[in-house]
């Protein structure tokens, strides 16, 4: 009976895992890690999906439950990114252009 319950749980979790995407990478600002700062992932309409903070090296890792185009917000800048069924890595430079901030892909 215990084995049947375990199999049932695994079968229920497989579809959920199949449609999740890990988005990870690093952000630097002025040549230094963008350390201990908030990073948000939103849907195209601006709805918050998930948020986390960078570590001391500017590294972030966020797993979301949807695939397709989403937006990454960090340091007052926004970048279009994509989530799919396999991990997706990004490297960004946070740069100031006049009075606005931009996330530039490396």
Task: Please explain how this structure is put together.
With 106 residues, the protein is α+β, with helices and mostly antiparallel strands. The protein has one domain: Immunoglobulin-like (Sandwich). 16% of the residues lie in helices and 55% in strands. The protein has one helix and nine strands. The strands form two sheets. Strands 1, 2, 5, 8 and 9 form a five-stranded mixed sheet that branches. It has a four-stranded antiparallel sheet with strand order 4-3-6-7, with no helix packed on it. A hairpin with a 5-residue loop joins strand 3 (38-42) and strand 4. The chain is elongated, with a radius of gyration of 17 Å. The relative contact order is 0.22.
Q: Can you count the beta strands?
A: 9
CATH class: Mainly Beta
Global shape? elongated
Indicate the structural class. alpha+beta
Q: Note the gap between the termini.
A: 53 Å
Q: Tally the structural domains.
A: 1
- SS element count, helices: 1
SSE arrangement, N to C: HEEEEEEEEE
Q: What's the pLDDT, averaged over the residues?
A: 87
Give a topology summary:
Elements: H1 2-18, E1 21-29, E2 32-33, E3 38-42, E4 48-53, E5 59-64, E6 68-74, E7 77-83, E8 88-97, E9 100-105
Parallel strand pairs: 1-8
Antiparallel strand pairs: 1-2, 1-5, 3-4, 3-6, 6-7, 8-9
List descriptors.
alpha+beta; Immunoglobulin-like; 1 helix; 16% helix; 55% strand; elongated
Entry summary:
With 106 residues, the protein is of the alpha+beta class.
């Amino acid at each position: 009976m215990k084995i049947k319950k375990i199999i049932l749980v695994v079968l229920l979790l497989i579809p959920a895992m199949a449609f999740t995407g890990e988005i990870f990478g690093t952000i630097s600002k002025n040549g230094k890690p963008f350390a201990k700062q908030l990073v948000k992932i939103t849907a195209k309409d601006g709805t918050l999906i998930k948020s986390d903070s960078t570590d001391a090296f500017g590294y972030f890792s966020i797993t979301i439950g949807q695939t397709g185009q989403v937006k990454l917000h960090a340091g007052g800048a926004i970048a279009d990114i994509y989530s799919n069924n396999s991990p997706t890595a990004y490297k960004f430079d946070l740069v100031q252009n006049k009075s606005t901030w931009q996330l530039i892909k490396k």
